[in-house]
Backbone:
């Protein structure tokens, strides 16, 4: 499992290429990008990964945000993800942390895997472990450490 460090210093998306290439070693159509304690950086991580993926010519990569999604909105996102199983697009879904918003669980189950975002010095190890335990270690594609 690879990790990218220090989002703030990654002005050049070249630093994210190894993470993207690592993600592409496994088959997937949709990945959730979820924070262990906060959703502070998940949109930025998803946007950077989408940019890198598009630049490297994998396929069309789009971001479908689930941040702040209500249960009816979650249903719509899950439907988009199921439609993606036959589409050529890859989808990255920024999600809020499970502990703060358990309604993210159906989205996590609808994705092929998860990229876990952890903030050094802020995220609690117990929260990261609980997230991994809830989603299943086999669905954890990568961990991004920030800070």
Residues:
């Amino acid at each position: 499992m690879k990790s990218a460090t220090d989002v703030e210093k990654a002005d050049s998306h070249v630093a994210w290429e190894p993470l993207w290439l690592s993600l592409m070693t496994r088959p997937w159509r949709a990945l959730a990008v979820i924070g262990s304690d906060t959703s502070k950086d998940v949109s930025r991580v998803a946007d950077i990964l989408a940019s890198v993926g598009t630049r490297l010519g994998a396929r069309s990569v789009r971001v479908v945000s689930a941040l702040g999604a209500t249960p009816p909105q979650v249903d719509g996102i899950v439907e988009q993800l199921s439609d993606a199983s036959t589409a050529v697009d890859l989808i990255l879904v920024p999600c809020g942390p499970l502990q703060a918003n358990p309604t993210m669980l159906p989205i996590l189950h609808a994705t092929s895997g998860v990229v876990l975002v952890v903030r050094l010095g802020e995220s609690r190890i117990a929260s990261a472990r609980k997230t991994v335990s809830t989603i299943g270690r086999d669905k954890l594609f990568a961990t991004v450490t920030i800070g």
About this structure: The CA atoms of residues 8 and 50 lie 17 Å apart. Residues 1-11 have pLDDT under 50 and may be disordered. Strands lie at 30-35, 61-63, 90-95, 113-119, 140-146.
